[in-house]
């Protein structure tokens, strides 16, 4: 995997890569559904819908019960309810995946610069990174609404490369979904994927990436091994 040889920075995804946030989504979505008179749904159902930002999530959740016209009519009120309910519990039910902190420490110790790029709204992202002790690791953080386009568009990754003054080939993206991989491919960044997150119900093995790593710590080791060998 010589594509990792020149890597100087990493762009790391949030939901499904650093944090298991499905329990937060579950509480906020079901509170919203209750306010709209809809029955609760399961964590498993929600995991299939996370990763493409709030608008996509809310439309998918409402489409379980309603046709497109009714979804659009209720959308603004549903979004407001969802945002209020999510902010009330943001981070209370979510947990770090194994070896995330150790992985970030290892990446930093190797001299890599770190950015977090998520499709989560920035108003949810900033307090969540702080609460979980992740904020100090990242020089740059972009949420799903920080820029005109979100992943799988390459814009957020290209923006990080420009911020760091690095070429895309020098910046590895690490994520849990085809959304992250598509953005990386379109930007020209190498990409590593983790198998434990939310890949829209698809196997991570069917996603085009430069390698699957069990944890962020494994990602750090893999990147280091290519540095020493190159
Ligand atoms: O869609 C979301 O809200 C989260 O997505 P992420 O996997 O890009 O962090
Ligand atoms: Mg993700």
Offer a quick outline of the entry:
By secondary structure, the protein is α/β, with parallel strands linked by helices.
Strand-helix topology:
Layout: E1 9-12, E2 19-20, H1 22-35, H2 43-47, H3 53-63, H4 68-89, E3 95-96, H5 100-109, E4 113-117, H6 122-131, E5 140-142, H7 155-164, E6 171-175, H8 178-187, E7 191-193, H9 216-229
Parallel strand pairs: 1-4, 1-6, 4-5, 6-7
Antiparallel strand pairs: 2-3
Helix pairs in contact: 1-4, 3-4, 5-9
The structure holds 2-phosphoglycolic acid (PGA) and magnesium ion (MG).
Magnesium ion binds at residues 13, 15-17, 51, 175-177, 197.
Binding site for Mg(2+): 13, 15, 176
Function: Specifically catalyzes the dephosphorylation of 2-phosphoglycolate. Is involved in the dissimilation of the intracellular 2-phosphoglycolate formed during the DNA repair of 3'-phosphoglycolate ends, a major class of DNA lesions induced by oxidative stress.
Protein name: Phosphoglycolate phosphatase
């Amino acid at each position: 995997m010589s594509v990792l040889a020149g890597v100087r920075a990493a762009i790391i995804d949030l939901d499904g890569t650093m944090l298991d946030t499905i329990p937060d989504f579950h509480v906020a979505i079901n509170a919203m559904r209750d306010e709209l008179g809809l029955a609760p749904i399961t964590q498993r159902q929600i995991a299939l819908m996370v990763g493409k930002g709030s608008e996509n999530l809310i439309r998918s959740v409402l489409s379980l019960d309603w046709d497109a016209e009714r979804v659009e009519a209720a959308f603004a009120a549903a979004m407001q309810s969802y945002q209020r309910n999510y902010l009330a519990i943001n981070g209370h039910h979510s947990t770090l995946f194994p070896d995330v902190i150790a992985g970030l420490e290892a990446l930093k110790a190797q001299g890599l610069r770190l950015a977090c790029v998520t499709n989560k709204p920035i108003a949810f992202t900033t307090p969540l990174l702080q609460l979980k002790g992740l904020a100090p690791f990242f020089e740059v953080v972009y949420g799903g609404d920080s820029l005109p386009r979100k992943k799988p568009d390459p814009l957020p990754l290209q923006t990080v490369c420009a911020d760091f003054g690095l070429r895309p080939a020098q910046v590895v993206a690490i994520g849990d979904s085809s959304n992250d991989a598509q953005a990386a491919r379109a930007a020209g960044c190498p990409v590593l994927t983790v198998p434990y997150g939310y890949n829209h119900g698809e196997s991570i093995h069917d996603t085009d990436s430069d390698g699957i790593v069990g944890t962020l710590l494994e990602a750090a080791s893999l990147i280091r091994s290519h540095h020493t060998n190159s």
